[in-house]
Amino acid sequence: MSFRKHSKQKFVPNFSLEKHKSYAAAFKLKVDDTCLDKYYNHFLRFLKDEQILPSNPEDIVIFRHFVFDSDFGSIHISFVRNLIRNINDLNFNWTIKILSKYIGFIGAVSSIHQADIFDTLFRDYPNQHLLEALVKNLLSNDKILFLEAATHYINIMSLFPKFKLYLLFS
User: Fold this and answer.
1) Interacting residues of 13 by C-beta distance below 8 A, sequence separation 6+
2) Backbone dihedral angles phi then psi of residue 62, each to the nearest 5 degrees
3) pTM
4) CB 162 within 8 A of CB 136
5) Residue 168: exposed, middle, or buried by beta-carbon count in 10 A (0-12, 13-18, 19+)?
6) Span 57-66, pLDDT tens digits
7) Taking Cα atoms as reference points, which of 67, 89, 78 lies closest to residue 133?
8) Cα–Cα distance between 92 and 155 in angstroms, integer?
9) Among 13, 63, 161, 166, which residue's beta carbon has the most beta carbons within 10 A?
10) Rounded to an integer, what distance in angstroms lies between the CA atom of residue 35 and that of residue 47?
11) Helix (H, G, I), strand (E, B) or coil at 8
12) For the chain, what are the domain ranges?
């Protein structure tokens, strides 16, 4: 992963809401390979927070800073890859919840970036169990976009006859 060129002054977003202040530490981490996992952990804590919602404009701004504006550069796809790479039976449901919330946030930021996530999932992780669980957890608008994106992947549609039914009834 390439990091941004280190400048003398670190980028730290303005955390005006109290609920966001605990995430400021993520933007003060030293930029190196050992701190990327710490940064991901701060971001995971942000996504796990039940007060943080993809429908809240202030939360979307902080999300955008986490994903695109940190000194670690854009973690848009690398975060998803890291999340899925570490999935197992013990954290499967938790991971699906985090991934669906991430997809909701990324869709609020950019439909192009949301399509990137869907393409990455379909191309690199065509796991029936993972994708079916994910589609069940997505918000309704994200679910429709997910299913529409799946139609571009014949292998995905053939693996998942349920997706065709979802499309009929959505």
Assistant:
1) 24, 27, 61, 62, 65, 69
2) -65, -40
3) 0.86
4) no
5) exposed
6) 999 999 999 9
7) 89
8) 23
9) 63
10) 18
11) coil
12) 29-169
Question: How far is 99 from 80, CA to CA, in rounded Å?
Answer: 7
* Lookup: tokens for 89: 């039976």
- What was the pLDDT predicted at 6? 46
CB atoms within 10 A of CB 79: 24
Quote the tokens at residue 108: 């609020």
State residue 27's pLDDT score: 81
Q: Which DSSP helix (H) or strand (E) runs through 78?
A: helix 76-85
DSSP string, 143-158: HHHHHHHHTT-HHHHH
Length of the chain: 170
Tell me the average pLDDT of the chain. Answer: 86
Q: In the chain, which residues have pLDDT < 50?
A: 1-9
Tokens of 67: 């994903």
d(CA 118, CA 132): 13
Residue type, 26: A
Report the amino acid identity of residue 91. Answer: N
Measured N-to-C along each axis, helices 128-137 and 111-124 cross at an angle, to the nearest 10 degrees, of 150
